[in-house]
Amino acid sequence: SSAADLHEVGVAARIMHAAPPKDQDGPLQLMVQAIQRFEIVEMRSSAPSPVEGQPSSDAPPVFYARVEYWHEAEFETNEELKAYSVAVVDSIKELVNLNPLYKEGLSLLIDQIDVHNPGALADFAASMTTASGEELQEILAMRSVRRRIEQVLILLKREIEISRLKTQISQRIEERMSKQQREFFLNQQLKEIKEELGLSKGEAQTEVD
Questions:
Q1: What is the pLDDT of residues 122-163, one digit of tens each?
Q2: Does the predicted model carry a pTM greater than 0.70?
Q3: What is the b/e burial string over 68-83, where b = at least 16 CB atoms within 10 angstroms of the residue's CB?
Q4: Which has the closest alpha carbon to 43: 19, 15, 77, 7?
Q5: DSSP conformation class of 13
Q6: pLDDT attached to residue 98
Q7: Rounded to the nearest 5°, which phi and psi values hold at 64?
Q8: Number of H helices and number of E strands within the chain?
Q9: Phi, psi for residue 208 in degrees, rounded to 5
């Protein structure tokens, strides 16, 4: 890996929950909260001290960065952000009603997230979506809290539409399966009735009987 593999904007984060791997080779799943964003001002790398029995050329480089932290101000008096925050909370509630799988993660973090902090709320809401890594990184790199929470609201609305569509598809499949099952049982019953009446044999054999 090289410095080019790292994004210009990162976060100092706090681990909220750690889930052990489901199997020996499985990944460790961490749930973290972004505490403070920073921008990389300067990056350099140096090779670590050689490990005994290991060629120094094979050792991965160690990266060092000089960063500038972004200090977000308080927004209690910003009515526009309050309105965005309410819209995000309402969208989260709607999403949980459509997809109960989100309820576990929501109950785990809702007591630890300050929902009155628009920045923290936006980060939390973004994590509930199935947005791509590029989309989430784009939100993480937004310095403006208003732009960030606005973009998160768009992702939430998209997630709600996806959940609704998934529900409709599941209902159609269940109805189709139920119809096929009913037809199968009716055909089985009809077959037994025909056998009882002697109608399941060939016409010639039926006449002989």
A1: 888 888 888 898 999 999 898 888 899 999 999 999 999 988
A2: no
A3: eeeebeebeeeeebee
A4: 7
A5: E
A6: 83
A7: -125, 140
A8: 6, 3
A9: -60, -45
